[in-house]
Amino acid sequence: MADDQAEYRIDQEQDQFVLRARSGQAVLTVRDAASAAHYLELLNRAYRAGFKAGLRQARRG
Amino acid sequence: MSTRTRKKRNKTYRPRRLPFQQLLVQAVAHHRKGRVEQAEALYRQILRDNPDQPDALQFCGVIAFHRGEHARAQELIQRAITLSPAYAGAHTNLGNIYLETGAYQAAADAYARAAELAPQDPDPPANLAVALRALERPDEAIESFQHALRIDPHHEKALYNLGCTLLSRAGFEEAIAVFRTLVARHPEFSPGYRQLGRCLTAFGRQDEAAELFRSWLAIDPDNPVAQHHYAATAGNAIPDRAADGYVAEIFDRFASSFDAVLARLDYRAPQLMAEAVQALLPAPTGQLAVLDAGCGTGLCGPLLRPYAARLIGVDLSAGMLVKAEQRGGYDKLVKAELSIFLQDHPPAYDLAICADTLCYFGVLDKVLPHLAQSLRPGGLLVFTVEKLEPGQAQDFRLNAHGRYAHQARYVEELLVTAGLTEVRLSEQILRNEAGAPVQGLLVSAWQAGA
Cβ–Cβ of A55/B448 closer than 8 Å? Predict the structure, then answer.
């Protein structure tokens, strides 16, 4: 189910998956759905933490 | 002694003029101990009374040479040789000037003459070999190094340079044998360990390299180069990043030959940076604040200058910064550890590049977010890392050669969780090493828009 509150989303474009911010700004392009899902979760966690906490906080979730 | 006697002696006292030989001995003693001004004053005193004294002339020439007054040095030493044509030391010093100024054939001629005049001295053939190597005549250089070693089998410089020359000729086993001899005969001479370790790791003999670095640490336990390479080859106590002392030591030592060595390695990072920046930014108008993070000798400076209103270079190695200063193009050069420099500065840059520097960091969790935070809104970050093949469990690995390689996914994760956008990674060959290409990642990312 799509998370309407999420800041980021995945757009599938041909054989690529583009992670986009709510503004439409592309953040990262990956080739497989599993990676796209991984980054989407990481990005939304980092966003909720204000990015300042960086990767460790995002990985801890 | 009675007052009367003293008076009498004082009456007859005259300042005694020392014979020039005695002054020369004193001058040379000062010179050897680095008291150059005192030495020079005595040489000049000798020359006032004996203007054609060859030793004083040539030693004044040596002092002039070390001050960078090459023409004056050459003139003085040449005069000493004219007055004393069989003066081997003067021919050697003349050769040193020619070598330093790139007149390699003249240097070789001068050293060859010194070798004829002093056939039992190992230094002239060792020096001649260096000049022959510079003339790209390695076979003759090897023969001349071996000649020096026949005279003195322990000659440190000849052993070291013979090993390096054999290495450049792909004589790997012979080079390893020579460096092993060097380490055994001069266990206190750290460049011998470095070169032998480099050979062993380059050719996959990691266990032997680890044993070598362990024995180096036994002699010099605080040496940061030995510590780093022992960790890299033994796989023990891998540091999160190369210690500041390690980076400063290897690059300070490397500074004078850095550009020539990189040219031999087909080093591509600056060109990759330039191409990426050109592809991602509009045509340069000289209006951006630009950071060259880990600027080294400033190879990226000329490529970045057209974009920059202000170009700042940061590096940990003072030797590298001197070279960057000489190359020019930077508005400011700062000697600092990168993370510390970045965390002390607010977002200030429209463009930050980091070429071949993050390979000295394992954990990037601090430095990459700091680089991201150094960018103004809409700023661009471009950097390279060495690539760790996917499928490895770890985010990074310290390779046996002493540099770290990173997983693409780890780099991507760090950048996106630092809030950067349009993250792009492309696989590139960064350089060649031991005849094999070093695979890397060229990375670009943007700070969210203005």
Answer: no
